[in-house]
Known about the structure:
Layout: E1 2-7, H1 9-12, H2 18-32, E2 37-42, E3 54-57, E4 66-70, E5 75-78, H3 81-95, H4 101-114
Helix pairs in contact: 2-4
Domain DUF5753: 3-105
Pfam families: DUF5753
Protein name: DUF5753 domain-containing protein
Amino acid sequence: MLLVLIDEGVLHRRIGGPQVMREQLGHLLETAQRPAVFLQVVDPECVAGLAGAFMIAELPNGQPDVVSSDSPAQAHTTTDHDVVTSIWQRYEAIRLWAYPERVSVLKIEEVRREWT
């Protein structure tokens, strides 16, 4: 299962030309249709997500969760309980600002049409 939260601003941030943007957003829409993928767009007023990108991996068989957080130079990966707990809390704070999946898909579709 893959849970994805993306900032609404990235839908508008030009990377390549309009064709590239349409293709990227189309790929997001295709990916969001997969049964084990849950994609939500986060309201641009959410400040909890401004601290940077991160990933959380929940591992099987009682293994500790792993967190990878990005910096401009490199990612930091850890299983430290306090860090993992802090990142989970940040994830939940961001998720509270996320639009429901159905609304998120509609937002992506709308922005994709704007890239002409």
